[in-house]
Design brief:
Elements lengths: L1 E3 L2 H8 L6 H13 L3 E5 H15 L1 H16 L3 E4 L3 H13 L1
Parallel strand pairs: 1-2, 2-3
Helix pairs in contact: 1-2, 1-3, 3-4
Length: about 100
């Protein structure tokens, strides 16, 4: 199973004060059991780090960074790096459809 993880999932997982925190924790536990392959992008991570920094502090934002690095090292998470070319190509598809 392949799943794209958005910032709302990362935020809910790391910010214990979010009403969706328990759901996010349960969601990740199920994904581990199913050996799911997770994907995200550098833009999603940037949004997540910034939100966590301003709402929950540096310790929580760094906690996400550590979790991301662990996921990459264990082969559970792949990050898509959105550069200028990919951004322009994506916009072309967006306006086409």
């Amino acid at each position: 199973m392949k799943i794209l993880i958005d910032s709302s999932v990362f935020i809910s997982l790391l910010a214990a004060d979010q009403y969706t925190h328990k759901q996010a924790t349960n969601f990740f536990d199920k994904l581990k059991d199913q050996n799911a392959r997770l994907y995200t992008s550098n833009l999603i991570l940037s949004e997540s780090y910034t939100w966590l920094l301003y709402k929950n502090g540096l310790r929580v934002a760094v906690g996400l960074k550590n979790m991301i690095e662990m996921g990459e090292n264990e082969g559970l998470l792949e990050i898509f790096w959105i550069d200028d070319l990919l951004s322009r190509e994506t916009w072309t598809y967006f306006v086409k459809f």
